[in-house]
Each structure stands twice: as C-alpha cells, then as structure tokens.
C-alpha cells in the first residue's frame, strides 16, 4: 500500500506550549486511519495542521507526493482534502441544501458571463449540483429536511450535515475531527456505517476520535498520541492491548472501551 | 433529544452519493422542489411598469427630483447590501465610493473636457479599483475593526476632497455642473436629461439592470460562496473558498455600483461640495439596508424608498422631522429585527398558517 | 533650551492636553465595547449633551441665578455634565440597548445607536438651533508660564480631571467587587454569571459610566470646539480611531493611543496645518491596522477551531 498522506516530524507550538511535537505518520490509500489520545494530546492541532487551518512550525507534509506545507486550507481542498470540525461549523442561517451546495464551490464549470445572464451551462450546473446535493443529503439521512435552516437541526444531525457538505467537495482524503462526539449509540452506529460507505467509494478516511467503539469497529490503523507526541500505532487490537496506551488513558482520563 | 436516524446496521444498500440519477437520490418531492427554478420575469415586468408610471403619478418637479434621489439611493443601498448582507463584511465607508464616482466624473468632465459617458465609465472603474484596495483590509480584519477601518477610509476620502483644492476646489465646491448630455436615439425625439423624468428613467433603469445582475449573481454559485463567507470563513475555507479573493470581488463590485450612483449625482444637483459625502451618508445607506432587510435583494430597495420618502412625508413636523426620523429608525430596529421584508414575510406566513384570527 | 526643543516640548504639552480630552471620550467607547461588544455611534451626542448641559449650568444657572463666581460655576458645570451624561446613558440603555441585547446580532444595535444619534442631534437642533454657542471657560484666559513654555489653566484643569477620572476608574475596577466583575465580563462574558452578578446590571452600569465620562468630556470640550448640536461628531471619529489604535476593549491601549493621537495632532497643526489632522490620524489608523490588526498592546489570539 502506498501512503496517500505522509507527515514527517510535524511541530506546532502556541506561545511556547508545544501542541504537536515531532509527529510522523503515513496514511495508506483507502484506509480508515484513526488518531486517538487523551484530552490535550494534540489531536485537534494535528488535524488543523493536516487541513491547513494552521501551518506547522517545522516538518513536512506530503499529499500524494506533493508538499502541503505553506499551502492554505482552501488550496488543499482543490487537491482533494476535506474535513469536518470538532466544534461543528455549519452555515447555520442557510438551509441544509444550501450548506451542501456551498461544498460544490470548486466544481462549477460555468462561463463567467452566464453568472450575469444564466444560459445552458449555468442551468446544467444548477441541476447537477442540486441533484448531487440532494443525493448527499439522502446519504446522511436528511433529504426530507433539505429546506430547513441548518441551525434548526439536532446536534447529531448537524454532524451528519457537516459530513455531507464536506463530501460535496469530492475529496480523496476525508478528515473528521471527533465525528462521534455528542452522538447517541444509534447515531454512532449510523456514522460508522457511513464511514464504511465512504471508504467503499474509494475515499481515504482520517478520523480523530474519542469514541473507542467507533475506532475499534471501523479503523484499520490506529495512531496514538499523548502530550503532542507519538505514543504507539498499529491495528486496533494491538493498540487495545498495548500497556503504554492503557497507561496513558488510565493515567489521564478514562475513556470507556479501552480496557474492554 | 433523540434523533431519528436510519437503522444503524445500514440495512439499505449504500447509495452512491456523488452520482445520483434524477429522482433516485431522495424523496422525489424534495428533489423536485430543489430543482424548481424561480420564475421572476413577472416581477421585473411589474417593476418596469412602476418605474414608467412613477414620474407621471408624482408629476411635480419637486417630487420628480425626490424620485431621482430615490433611484440613486436604491443603487447605493443595493451596493452596500452586497458587502454587508451577502458577504457579511461590516463596511461603513460606502459614502467614499459614492464620492469617488461623483468627483471623478465631474473633474474629468469639467477640467479635462471628457464626454460624460466616458467620464462616468472611468469613475465607475476608479471606484471599483479603490474598492479592491479596501478589500485588502477586509482580508485581514473582522467585524468592527473592518467597520472602523472602512469608516476611516470614508473620512480620508472626505478629507482629501476638502484638502486637494487644486482638483476638487475644496470646500468652495464645483458649480454649474450640467446633467448628462442629451441622447438621440434613431427614430425617437432627443432625450434631454435636464428633464428630471428622463434622468429618473435613466437612473432607475440602471438600478433595475443592476438589480437583475445582482439577483442573478446571488442566486448563482457565487452567491453561495459569498453567503458561506458571511456565515463562517473557516468553514468556507474548508470547502475550498479563497475568502480574500471573494471579498475583493464583493467590495470591488459594490464600490463600482456606488460609484455609478455617484456619476449622476453632480449633474442632478448642479453643484458638488465635499459635505455631500460626509460619513453620515454611509450611516444613512446602512440604515436603508437594515430597515429594508439585509441579505435579501428587495429589502434594501424598500429601505431606500422608505427612508428617502419618510423625511419628505414628515415635512409637516417642521424642524422636528429629522428627530422623528431618528425615532422611526430606532423603532424599526427595535420592533422589526429582520427589517421590513422579514416582518412582511412573517405576517404573510401567519396569515397562511392560521388565518387572520389565529 | 534650543528653540527646536522648546517647540517640541510646547507641542507635546499641547498634545497631552488634547489627548486627555480624547481619552475621556474614547474610554467610554472602549468600556462599552469591552463589556457588550458594541459600537455606540450615539456616544458623540452624549458628549454634545454634556457640553450643552455644562454651558447652561456655567453661564446661566450657577453664575446668573445662584450668583457663584465664574470658576466655581464652571467646575460645577463639569459635575453637572457628568450627571447629564449618566442620566442619558441610563435612559438610552433602558430604551435601546437592553431590549436589543442577546439577539445575537451586531448590526442592528449599531443601527439603533445611529437612530439615537439622529434623534439626539435633531432634538438639540430643535432646542438650541444651529448657531454656535459661545462657551468660554474662565480658566482659559489665565496662562501659566514655566520658563518659555506656556499653557492655560484650562489645560491643567483638563489634565487633572482626566487623571482623576482615569484614576477613579482604575480604583473602581481594581478594588471594588463590581469593578472586578466588570473586568471579568469584558474578558469573558460567561464568567459574570458564575460570579453571581446580574449581567444586565453590569451592562447598564458600564453604559452609565461611559456616558458620564462622555458628558464630562463635553463640559471640558465645550470651550474648545464649535458648540452646535453636531459638535460631538467632530470628536467622535477621532475617538473611534483611538479605540482601534489602542485595541478595542483595551483600556490601557486606549489611554496611550488617546495621548498619542493628541500629540500627533499638535505636531500636525504645527507642521502641516490644521486642515489635514483627520487625514493624518486616519492614514495612521489604516497603516496601524495593516501592521498590528489587534491594536497597540493587545496580543494576538489564534482562533480556536
């Protein structure tokens, strides 16, 4: 397997606090790659480094062989990286459909003049985006609420909408920041199935997660961080049995499922 | 809160999300609703009729003059709404672009002997370019900081108008500015813009054209992009949106439209003094946007009409009329938080839902 | 002392005097912004109301009716302007700010303050007319001489009053429970609830303090500016620039920026002429915003994603 995304010795600190300290990792193509670790392990910072929300202080980041460091977040999207946020960031005043439609931003093929006077190409694009947008909403189980405001959705549904919106960018690599946070067990089950579906469509998935059920059930590879540093990586089973990992979790905060 | 979700075991075979065929991807009615194209030509036809009738209904020179002012205000309010309502950038400097439009036109016309239409085009371009410059600030600043920076921009423009006497004539002003030159269309009598009805048709027609263009724009993917920036820039970036670039687009276009309104102002008034572009003018434009309903196309138009005519209708109050205007403005904000448009929509929705008695 | 150094010192002193006036206006804006994230465009008119209140107290009530000496009358008028500002703040808060709060929207309250501004300006116009009032401070005629440097008693008075006001504000913030709560709110909106203090009360208090400062500034500015119902507007744009340069919501930054702008203005008048003051100040503001978008001494905070 070749690595789709490769990080080498990534470092990031905020005002002297080292959030990510020399992390190297390789995400194989078509994998579901989980990053876990106790609170404050630097997982979210790592996610922000991968997506381009932050730039690293040092280190390298390669996507399909291409250097990502220095490339702002919006440029990385065009290469095929998409993400969701830990603290859900939807366009709350817009409808569900409009949220997803915004995700097609990099995929419009309309001659400039047709923005002023819509003609055939404009309407073709218009129809295609709406059909695909509705299909994406259907995929996350929200098609029947397409015209409601995103802010009106329940928490778990907002997470699913964010996933649909990110998928609209047509990613090769999809990164989810704690997608199961705040979901009930039925919702976690639904999410788990969707992640498998997404991978089945040829999309590589990176998931930063706290929820061990999800990680143990879907991840092919688990990467463990603690205090911004690399701790361990391997198959879910190996991680579960690793004494270092257990100690890191038990020493810090207990997360259900690790000891199980 | 329990959330109704599909069976967790994923009982249904996963559908391909990105390539759906029509009618298959979701509940048919919802997809059909998503694909329904809005029909807008009757509204435009209606607007044309209203524009045609207005100078006839309000037939005195005084009211026709107010109509011209109103059409300019509609242009200004629409331009500001693009930046504030659709892109979510607090701009308090719109009077600066209005001023650039007016002064560039007039100076080219009077001091350099340009043809009016050419001067006007140059002025629109100049305002647009300066708008791009202001957008450089918008790329770095957020919220109130941008508000004050743009206010600062307007103050600078105003001060330049006062101090650059060799070109602008300073506070003494420029006098004897002629209206746009007559236009002779083949087969029709010559149209003279010294006639205020003709000037109104010209400015209002342009405003309608700008409305049409903006209306198309905000319904297009560009509108989706601008709204995404308005709602959350970090989120928009995660979808590939280069917000600095699109803010520049929005500011540039907005400034050009404000500049366009400015082109016609000096010829209409006949004189040009810096005080017409005091920063208070920016606030008035903002008030039009808010009172009408920002982030909607029709809102700023309504706001501009209401706030242009309100002071005229309040003339009976004499010296107190602007005070009443202030009270009215405050009350609208207090009791119609979404502006007139949202208040009207809520009213219609309530009617539709439970009848007038509910 | 060389002439150049002399001129420099003289202009710096003039600048500090001017700066103190600006600080008094700008502090209120910063206070309000810090606590409720709100720009108050009517602040200018609180200054004007203060100036008119002071004018009538100093030139009519205190001197003509009560027969007090000019100087006492003027000192009394400063207190009266403070009271007028506070009262106005109380009313405006109850009528406009309080009902509009917590609607999750920055723009509408902003417009409401513009509405209040229009109302106050035109209300005063109806009452006092457009002709400027001649408001002389009895302290302005007496100059103090230190070597070859001159300054008026009025400027000493202004600096003293500003120092007292700033000192009082700091003491209030530092030593009283309410003041501490106020600081807490301006740093983090949610902590106030934790401290068990009614947020509405704190906000009302902030607006009253801010308006009182503005009113008092009006009394001190009255003799300096052209006293018409629109007088405040000439000061307020500069106050906005100061608040930004100092960093929105940052008191120390505002004080430093205010004095700085005063000094810059004094030197601009000396070397470039009084016509370009606003130009210089606002070009500086824009440059400042490019170089340090969060103000002179505020630290940058990375957005939490």
Structure description:
The complex is a heterotrimer of chains A (about 260), B (about 350) and C (about 300). Chain A has helices at about 45-50, 75-80, 95-100, 115, 120-140, 155-165, 185-200, 210-220, 235-240, 245-250; strands spanning about 5-15, 15-30, 30-35, 60-65, 65, 80-85, 175, 205-210, 220-225, 230-235. In chain A, α7 links the parallel β7 and β8 (about 205-210). Chain A has one domain (about 5-250): Rossmann fold (3-Layer(aba) Sandwich). Chain A has about 260 residues and is α/β, with parallel strands linked by helices. In chain A, about 40% of the residues lie in helices and about 25% in strands. With about 350 residues, chain B is mainly alpha-helical. In chain B, about 70% of the residues lie in helices and about 0% in strands. Chain B has helices at about 30-35, 40-55, 60-85, 95-110, 115-140, 145-165, 165-170, 195-220, 220-230, 235, 245-270, 280-290, 300-315, 320-335, 340-355. In chain B, α2 runs antiparallel to α8, α3 runs antiparallel to α11 (about 245-270) and α5 (about 115-140) runs antiparallel to α11. Chain C is built from 11 helices and 2 strands; from the N terminus they run ααααββααααααα. Chain C is globular and about 55 Å long. Classes of the chains: A alpha/beta (about 260), B mainly alpha (about 350), C mainly alpha (about 300).
Compact summary:
The complex is a heterotrimer of chains A (260), B (358) and C (305). Chain A has 260 residues and is an alpha/beta fold.
SSE arrangement:
The complex is a heterotrimer of chains A (260), B (358) and C (305).
Chain A: E1 3-14, E2 17-28, E3 32-36, H1 43-51, E4 58-63, E5 66-67, H2 73-79, E6 81-83, H3 96-102, H4 113-116, H5 120-139, H6 155-167, E7 173-177, H7 185-200, E8 204-208, H8 212-218, E9 221-226, E10 229-234, H9 236-241, H10 243-251
Parallel strand pairs in A: 3-8, 3-9, 6-7, 7-8
Antiparallel strand pairs in A: 1-2, 1-4, 4-5, 9-10
Helix pairs in contact in A: 3-5, 3-6, 5-6
Chain B: H1 28-35, H2 41-57, H3 61-86, H4 94-110, H5 116-138, H6 143-163, H7 165-168, H8 196-219, H9 221-231, H10 233-237, H11 243-269, H12 280-292, H13 298-313, H14 321-335, H15 339-354
Helix pairs in contact in B: 2-8, 3-8, 3-11, 3-12, 3-13, 4-5, 4-6, 4-11, 5-11, 8-11, 12-13
Chain C: H1 3-36, H2 43-65, H3 70-100, H4 107-128, E1 143-146, E2 149-152, H5 153-175, H6 177-187, H7 189-194, H8 199-221, H9 231-246, H10 251-271, H11 277-291
